[in-house]
Structures are given as structure tokens and as C-alpha cells.
Predict the structure of Membrane protein, palmitoylated 3a (MAGUK p55 subfamily member 3).
Amino acid sequence: MCSCQAALKPGMHWLHETLALLTSQLRPDANHKEDMVFLKDVFSEKSLAYLMKIHEKLRQYERQSPTPVLHSASSLAEDVAEELQSGPMSVEEKELLHLLTSPHLRAVLSVHDTVAQKNFDPVLPPLPDDFEDELEEESVKIVRLVKNKEPLGATIRRDEATGAVIVARVMKGGAADRSGLVHVGDELREVNGISVMHKRPDEISQLLSQSQGSITLKIIPAIKEEDKLKESKVYMRALFDYNPLDDKATPCQEAGLPFKPGDILQVVSQDDGTWWQAKKVGDSNLRAGLIPSKQFQERSFRLSRKDRQGSSGEANASEPGEPEFLTYEEVTRYQQRPNERPRLVVLIGKAANHLFLEDFHEKEGVEYHFVTKQAFDADAQNNKFIEYGEYKENQYGTSIEAIRSVQAKNKMCLVDVQPEALHTLRTGEFKPYVVFVKPRIPESRRRRSAATSPAGGEHGRITEEELQEMRQSAQQIEQQYGHLVDRVLIKEDSASACAELRGILERLEREAFWVPISWIRT
């Protein structure tokens, strides 16, 4: 085959352009006509030119070292789809919903998330030659996977009858689950060539957690593998604080999912009656973690209470109307529809009353009404008040019918109540949105006379004792009712607090929020 030269223009480094120029230089002669025709046909193929262009684009993209904008495009698409389905849709919105729920786009987004979150190094080394001699035909399998600075995503247990180390759980989205090679019921024999036959479960868990990069598992497959977990659509609002590192009962601390009161958890599996698998809504981590089930956590609380009562000899009574143990509350997304009554907005906290007095200007006959003492006492006896009491020798009460009257006019109703009233108001009828108006309270101050009232702006000076009382009141509300609060409004000053509250009211009319699922089913 004769040689040929292609004169490149200065600065031309694109491979597909080089091939095109080379093709134009091919001139078949008498001795190598067939070779030249073959080369010209190969270099002239459109598919080859397309591949070269793709190659150059990928190289250019690689040199830019791009970083993903977000790691959870699939979750975002699901949230948008749920938002679209929660109300009437225009033609454009229906088309967008069709695109977001199409299997092809969902697959593309899933691949995007996988690539955005996974570190594909290191490359798995080849299997040792002596492994083949150790394998029992059709009974043992060698699983090679990559685990980079993350838990394996599987828990183990010791079979009491046989003593075998069995895979108890496979965490949704973890390294074991993504591999598709590890299943519940598999018997684990070796980790990186180290036998686990006579090791304790905690020793094996430590061995697995310390293994980084390439990890090799020798497994005897389960005779009857369980079906792969199907991701559920069960959402729970956490009502308590949980840290797996402080939980001695958890089967695997590194697989635990920490959360705070108010966090929304998507429970992806309740197959285990003791430990559920869940993901935190809004978290970019696609791997599920272990959380105590509702029944197990209630039992833990019950035992803990008995221990406290046994040591102190005193009972720890629950709040009136409060469930005995606060664990989880099943929730769903809800958006007010045009034909529905607006949600009730409930303000709690000592600073809330000041906000009403200063910014919303209550008027007699509009925001409140005077009645005779006899009429007031009769309404109180007939349970017509959400709450009532006495302040500076004057009786006051919040009427249930007054709230219903405002909502019947398709108006948004705001009430300022004591936190105890939430037990009465949290129903499907009112669907309250609870705002804790919390004053900005300084932790300390150099001069006692330098502080102004955080609740009343510049309206007066307050003492250190009053500041301490505000701190204690806010802390008590957060501890006893924080799990029922939808929004904490920090009252820096009256104007900013009022503006923020008006923004909340506008969002309630057009956006979806998490509410107890019982409010929708009733």
C-alpha cells in the first residue's frame, strides 16, 4: 500500500476533519487500486464521521471537568409531576407531565443521577487464577463491586440453627443494591479472601465498613431469592429526634438514617417489622437508611419511660389530647383547590399577639366581639371555644363558629392561640398551617439598660428576667409543639415579620405542602 500525506491547516486538530482531508488525498494507482478504493470507502462512511465527532465532543467535555448541577434529577422530576397532578392542568402542563413520566426520560434522568453520584474509580482488578479451583459449581458466586467512602448498604445476621452469616437486609440505593448481585438470604462466606465463618457479626460489619475501593464477597446464593424491593410512596413526618450513633439497638449504625422532628421521610420498605428503610425527602443521597419502625420506637419509648419512673418513682404524664408516644405521622402533599375553603393559619408564641396588635390592627366587631359574662359562660360550657381564659380580669375566648364563618366566605382566617389549642384545631376541617412567631432574643448583653423588647420593637425596655422568661417560653414551645409547627418566623422587627407573614399567606394559595394524610381521607 502506498503512503499518502494530508496537508493539515495550521491549528487544525479535529480528528474527523483530518480523516475527511485524508480521504480527498487518496488517489488509486494501478498497483494498489483495490486498497485505495477500500480505504476511501471506509473513510467516507458517514457513521465513522459521526463517531469521530462524538469522540472529539467527549474529549472536549472531559477537558472542561464538568460538575453536575444537582444529583437528584429523578426526584425533582417526580416532585414536579406530583405538583402538576395536584390540580387542573393546561395543555402545556399535560404535555410536560407526559414527558416527565415517560419511561425513556425517566431512564435518562436515572442514568444522570447515577453518573452524578458515583465515583467509578478504582477499576476492578481481574479475578485471581486460583479462584476457579475454589468454586463449587452452581453453588458459590464471587461478587466484585466498588464501595467508595460509603456503607455497603447491607446488614447481616447469624442464623441460630446453622450458624451461617446471612444477608438480612439490602438497603435501597446502596452499593449492594446497585450491583444487583447481593440479595436477602444470601450466605456470606468471605470478605476480601478473609473467612467470616467463625467471626462475630460486629467483627464482620467492621470488616465490611473498613473495606474501601474494590471489595470481593464470596457468597452462597439463597435457594429462593426474595423479590427486589419496590419503592413505595409512603411518606412520614418524623415527630422525634433520632441519631443511629446513639442507638444501641440498631443492627448497623453506619446504615442508620439520622433525622430531626419535622423531617419528611419516604419509607421505601416496611417488610421488616422492627427496622424500616427510608430516605429523607430533599436529600441528594439516593441510598436508603434504617430507621426504627413505629411499633419498635413506641416500645422503646415505653421501656424508657418505665426506666425513668422506676428510678424517680414519679409518673411522666402526657399532654392532654397528645398521643402517648410521638413517633411518625403519615403525610401527603396537599394544595388548596379553587373550590375548597382556605386553610386556617394559626400563630403561636408570645410574639404572635404583639404582631396582631401592631400590624393587623384588631377592631371591635371585626376581629373580636364583646359579649355579656352570662353569654360567655354559656358558650364556654357548650364547648364553643377553641380556648378561653382570663387576662387582667377580662375573659377572652376564640370561637369555633367565628373561624367557620370567615372560611365560609372563602377568606383566609388567622388566629392567635395558645399552643395547647393545636390539639383541637389539627383536623381535616381546618387543615391548619402553624406559624411559631419567635422573637429575636439576645443570649447576653453587656448593659441591662441596652435591651429593647424583641417582641415589641422599640416600644419599651425589658429586664433580664423578662428575657429569661421569653427564652424559657420559646424553648418549651419548641420541645412540646415543635413537631406540629410548619414555619418558624423570627420576629426581628414588626415590618419584616409582617412582610414575611404575608408572603406565607400568598404561598398557601398557590403551593403544595405536607399535611397529615388523615386530613385528606376524611
Summary: The chain has a mean pLDDT of 78. The chain has five domains: 15-63, 73-117, 134-220, 231-334, 336-521.
